[in-house]
Design brief:
This protein has a single domain, classed as TIM Barrel. Helices cover 41% and strands 12% of the residues. It is built from ten helices and eight strands. Strands 1-2-3-4-5-6-7-8 form an eight-stranded parallel beta barrel, surrounded by six helices. Helix 6 links the parallel strand 5 and strand 6. The longest helix is centred in the last third of the chain and has 30 residues.
Length: 338
């Protein structure tokens, strides 16, 4: 099987020499803005947007020498692009931060002044889109989301650039981090991976949640109850979700701590699934937010150079179990796809 030359080059640009995607994520916007404000004890309106850019540039400068790529946003991060380490690829986010809160379904939207062409011109090797998705939503909601993803897929195909789709599961009125949602999560993740593996969407890499919540897996270090899965059942959930994928997929850290994410990757490795890497954000740098909020950029840089680097290196150590993205095409090198 072959892929187009532009998509192949883009995927090579964001992967390491082993073909595994070891990417950092720094495209958070609303959540980061609120976190800085919270640690300063001020209203978010009192946090200048320049401080968002300053934070993102510091993370980019210090951590990209240890990453195969970094995910940034075009709203606050473009001044950070010159700070990207040589040989580190760039993904740019296309969606607005958050979602439409005026109606049901958490409908997505795009940054109105951006297009895939403009993101590529700004320096993107690949495009990332985030949507909130549940296969159990009403058909009229998911029809809108399916068409939305199809349009972005077609736009990426026209520009011959890789399309990374991130989908976050949810259930209206339920805390997605709590025990009520946990039993539903494996099926939400599995059915979502199955849906967006379809060729009609033009997705090149699925950026997925792990199908379990480690807090509820008995026998893990992260377990704090109640028990939803045994370790064997959690491994089976990884295997079932991975079995639904027909595209390369990578795991997102979803805001958990570094040690929890590392244990999660160890469980993924134990399950033997064909995962191709990570896009890891807050698990690497979120503990630096209070450092920056109270001590400024120099304090953040010092923290990143010490603990931030240790965090990303710990994740990288787990990536030795990841499979190269091109293995999904049944070949042993990206060059074989030419």
């Amino acid at each position: 099987m072959k892929i187009t030359e532009g998509k192949r080059r883009g995927l090579e640009a964001v992967a390491n020499k082993s073909g595994v995607i070891a990417a950092a994520a720094m495209d958070q916007r609303g959540s980061l803005h609120k976190a800085i404000a919270r640690h300063r004890g001020v209203d978010p309106r009192q946090v200048p947007t320049e401080h968002m850019t300053e934070f993102k540039a510091a993370v980019t400068r210090v951590l990209t020498p240890h990453a195969s790529a970094i995910l940034l946003d075009p709203e606050f991060s473009l001044p950070a692009l010159p700070q990207v380490a040589r040989g580190c690829g760039v993904l740019l986010a296309y969606e607005k931060s958050g979602y439409d809160k005026t109606g049901p379904g958490r409908l997505p939207d795009l940054l109105p002044e951006w297009s895939v062409r403009r993101l590529v011109e700004a320096g993107a090797h690949a495009i990332k889109l985030l949507i909130y998705y549940s296969p159990f939503d009403p058909a009229h909601v998911n029809d809108q989301k399916h068409a939305f993803v199809e349009r972005i897929g077609a736009e990426c195909q026209a520009l011959d650039v890789p399309f990374f789709l991130e989908f976050i599961g949810y259930q209206e009125g339920v805390d997605e981090t709590g025990p009520d949602y946990a039993p539903k999560k494996p099926e939400v993740v599995t059915k979502s991976m199955e849906e967006f593996s379809k060729d009609r969407y033009g997705v090149d890499v699925l950026k997925v949640e792990v199908p379990i919540n480690m807090r509820f897996v008995e026998g893990t270090k992260a377990f704090n109850g109640p028990k939803v899965w045994t370790r064997a059942e959690a491994i089976a959930a990884f295997q079932e979700a991975a079995g639904a994928a027909r595209k390369p997929f990578i795991y997102l850290s979803a805001g958990v701590s570094n040690h929890v994410f590392n244990e999660t990757l160890e469980l993924a490795s134990e399950s033997g699934v064909n995962w191709c890497g990570v896009l890891c954000g807050r698990a690497t740098w979120k503990d630096g937010v209070p450092v920056y909020a109270k001590g400024g950029v120099k304090a953040l840089e010092d923290w990143l150079a010490d603990q931030g680097v240790k965090n990303i290196q710990a994740v990288n150590e787990r990536l030795t179990a990841g499979k190269p993205w091109y293995s999904f095409y049944g070949v042993e090198s990206a060059a074989a796809l030419r």
